[in-house]
Amino acid sequence: MRLKLDLHDIFNKGRDIDRALEDIIAEAERTGAKTVEIIPGKGSGQLKKRVLRFLDRKDVKARYHRVEKDSKNFGRLFVHFKH
């Protein structure tokens, strides 16, 4: 099962971004999803950097297995889980 989070609509709302990321990780844990696709979009790359900083937090990092940057699409990340 794969979950998807598109951040295009909330790209400039900091608190909403963190909440959306937290919610999708919690949902992946709850449902046993193996992968979460996060779409920060291409843009200037600032949103992608923010997402990566969030995922790099120690408390968040302990909840997933690894992050994969899509080699074919700069504006997409995959977060993989081992449940």
Briefly say what this structure is.
With 83 residues, this protein is an alpha+beta fold. Helices cover 40% and strands 22% of the residues. The protein has 3 helices and 4 strands; from the N terminus they run βαβααββ.
Biggest pleated-sheet summary: 4 strands, mixed
Strand order of the largest sheet: 1-2-4-3
Question: What kind of assembly state do the chains in view correspond to?
Answer: single chain
Distance between the termini: 12 Å
Tell me, rounded to a whole number, the average pLDDT: 93
What proportion strand?
15-25%
Given helix and strand content, the structural type is alpha+beta
Question: How many β strands by DSSP?
Answer: 4
Number of helices: 3
Shape: globular
Please give the share of residues in helix: 25-40%
